Amino acid sequence: MRWPAALIAMGAAIMAGVAAGGALPTDGRALIGLTASAPDGELTLPSATAPPAALRLAVTGVENPSMQGVAIALRLRLNTPAGRIERALGAVALFPSNQPGNFTISLPAKVANLVAHAAGPVRLLVHLQSPTAGRMLIEPLKVSLAQPRWR
Length: 151
Fold this sequence. Notes:
It is elongated and about 45 Å long. Helices cover 15% and strands 40% of the residues. It contains two helices and nine strands, in the order αββββββαβββ. The chain is of the alpha+beta class and 151 residues long. The protein has a single domain, classed as Sandwich (Jelly Rolls), CATH 2.60.120.
Protein backbone atom coordinates (compact mmCIF):
# COMPACT_ATOMS: atom_id res chain seq x y z
CA MET A 1 0.00 0.00 0.00
CA ARG A 2 1.36 3.44 -0.92
CA TRP A 3 0.59 6.30 1.45
CA PRO A 4 -0.06 9.78 -0.02
CA ALA A 5 2.80 12.20 0.64
CA ALA A 6 0.46 14.66 2.40
CA LEU A 7 -0.64 11.97 4.85
CA ILE A 8 2.96 10.99 5.58
CA ALA A 9 3.88 14.65 6.13
CA MET A 10 0.91 15.14 8.47
CA GLY A 11 1.92 12.07 10.50
CA ALA A 12 5.51 13.31 10.71
CA ALA A 13 4.30 16.73 11.88
CA ILE A 14 2.11 15.19 14.59
CA MET A 15 4.95 12.97 15.82
CA ALA A 16 7.37 15.93 15.77
CA GLY A 17 4.90 17.82 17.97
CA VAL A 18 4.70 14.87 20.33
CA ALA A 19 8.49 14.62 20.55
CA ALA A 20 8.74 18.36 21.21
CA GLY A 21 5.96 18.27 23.81
CA GLY A 22 3.68 20.27 21.51
CA ALA A 23 -0.08 20.21 21.07
CA LEU A 24 -1.58 16.77 20.62
CA PRO A 25 -4.74 15.70 18.81
CA THR A 26 -7.58 15.16 21.28
CA ASP A 27 -10.35 14.15 18.90
CA GLY A 28 -9.75 10.39 18.92
CA ARG A 29 -7.41 10.29 15.90
CA ALA A 30 -4.57 7.80 16.02
CA LEU A 31 -1.55 9.40 17.64
CA ILE A 32 0.91 6.54 17.80
CA GLY A 33 1.27 3.15 16.16
CA LEU A 34 2.90 0.13 17.79
CA THR A 35 4.04 -2.96 15.90
CA ALA A 36 5.62 -6.31 16.73
CA SER A 37 8.99 -4.97 15.56
CA ALA A 38 8.55 -1.52 17.20
CA PRO A 39 6.51 -2.29 20.33
CA ASP A 40 7.44 0.75 22.45
CA GLY A 41 5.96 4.24 22.49
CA GLU A 42 5.69 7.29 24.69
CA LEU A 43 2.83 9.77 24.95
CA THR A 44 2.69 13.09 26.78
CA LEU A 45 -0.43 13.28 28.93
CA PRO A 46 -2.49 16.42 29.49
CA SER A 47 -1.92 18.25 32.77
CA ALA A 48 -4.11 17.23 35.69
CA THR A 49 -5.26 20.02 38.01
CA ALA A 50 -6.68 17.56 40.54
CA PRO A 51 -5.82 13.92 41.30
CA PRO A 52 -7.42 11.87 38.49
CA ALA A 53 -9.31 8.70 39.36
CA ALA A 54 -8.39 6.88 36.16
CA LEU A 55 -6.75 7.02 32.75
CA ARG A 56 -8.73 6.33 29.56
CA LEU A 57 -6.79 4.66 26.76
CA ALA A 58 -8.39 4.46 23.33
CA VAL A 59 -7.17 1.83 20.87
CA THR A 60 -8.33 3.32 17.57
CA GLY A 61 -7.13 0.66 15.17
CA VAL A 62 -5.84 -2.90 15.08
CA GLU A 63 -4.32 -4.80 12.17
CA ASN A 64 -3.84 -8.36 13.42
CA PRO A 65 -4.61 -10.88 10.66
CA SER A 66 -3.16 -13.81 12.63
CA MET A 67 -5.45 -13.04 15.61
CA GLN A 68 -2.51 -13.44 18.02
CA GLY A 69 -3.10 -12.36 21.61
CA VAL A 70 -2.19 -8.70 22.18
CA ALA A 71 -1.68 -6.75 25.40
CA ILE A 72 -0.49 -3.21 26.08
CA ALA A 73 1.62 -2.65 29.21
CA LEU A 74 1.40 0.85 30.70
CA ARG A 75 3.81 2.86 32.87
CA LEU A 76 3.75 6.47 34.03
CA ARG A 77 6.93 8.55 34.10
CA LEU A 78 6.91 11.87 35.93
CA ASN A 79 9.09 14.31 37.78
CA THR A 80 8.55 15.20 41.42
CA PRO A 81 10.56 17.41 43.78
CA ALA A 82 12.26 14.18 44.91
CA GLY A 83 13.26 13.27 41.32
CA ARG A 84 12.02 11.24 38.36
CA ILE A 85 9.84 8.24 39.12
CA GLU A 86 8.06 5.55 37.14
CA ARG A 87 4.99 3.63 38.21
CA ALA A 88 3.54 0.56 36.51
CA LEU A 89 -0.18 0.82 35.82
CA GLY A 90 -0.60 -2.74 34.56
CA ALA A 91 -1.65 -4.03 31.15
CA VAL A 92 -4.81 -4.20 29.06
CA ALA A 93 -5.52 -7.04 26.63
CA LEU A 94 -7.42 -6.69 23.38
CA PHE A 95 -10.35 -9.07 23.02
CA PRO A 96 -11.15 -9.97 20.38
CA SER A 97 -7.53 -9.38 19.45
CA ASN A 98 -8.36 -7.66 16.16
CA GLN A 99 -10.83 -5.10 17.53
CA PRO A 100 -10.17 -1.56 18.79
CA GLY A 101 -11.71 -0.43 22.05
CA ASN A 102 -11.55 1.85 25.07
CA PHE A 103 -9.92 0.95 28.35
CA THR A 104 -10.19 2.66 31.73
CA ILE A 105 -7.28 2.08 34.10
CA SER A 106 -7.97 2.98 37.74
CA LEU A 107 -5.19 4.87 39.48
CA PRO A 108 -4.13 4.15 43.06
CA ALA A 109 -4.56 7.26 45.26
CA LYS A 110 -0.78 7.66 45.70
CA VAL A 111 -0.23 7.65 41.92
CA ALA A 112 -3.14 10.06 41.35
CA ASN A 113 -1.62 12.50 43.86
CA LEU A 114 1.79 12.22 42.19
CA VAL A 115 0.17 13.03 38.82
CA ALA A 116 -1.65 16.09 40.22
CA HIS A 117 1.57 17.44 41.75
CA ALA A 118 4.00 16.48 38.98
CA ALA A 119 6.75 18.95 38.15
CA GLY A 120 6.41 19.10 34.38
CA PRO A 121 4.77 16.79 31.86
CA VAL A 122 3.59 13.29 32.74
CA ARG A 123 4.51 10.64 30.17
CA LEU A 124 2.73 7.38 29.45
CA LEU A 125 5.10 4.62 28.34
CA VAL A 126 3.34 1.93 26.32
CA HIS A 127 4.67 -1.48 25.33
CA LEU A 128 2.96 -3.94 22.99
CA GLN A 129 3.37 -7.54 24.17
CA SER A 130 1.84 -10.96 24.14
CA PRO A 131 -0.47 -11.70 27.08
CA THR A 132 1.25 -15.11 27.27
CA ALA A 133 4.61 -15.00 29.06
CA GLY A 134 7.51 -16.01 26.82
CA ARG A 135 5.55 -15.71 23.57
CA MET A 136 6.81 -13.23 20.97
CA LEU A 137 4.55 -11.10 18.81
CA ILE A 138 4.84 -11.60 15.06
CA GLU A 139 4.33 -9.32 12.06
CA PRO A 140 2.07 -8.20 10.56
CA LEU A 141 0.69 -6.45 13.62
CA LYS A 142 -0.19 -2.81 14.20
CA VAL A 143 -2.05 -1.22 17.10
CA SER A 144 -2.95 2.48 16.94
CA LEU A 145 -3.58 4.59 20.05
CA ALA A 146 -5.29 7.96 20.45
CA GLN A 147 -4.35 10.60 23.02
CA PRO A 148 -5.07 9.17 26.51
CA ARG A 149 -7.24 11.26 28.85
CA TRP A 150 -7.55 11.57 32.59
CA ARG A 151 -10.91 10.67 34.16
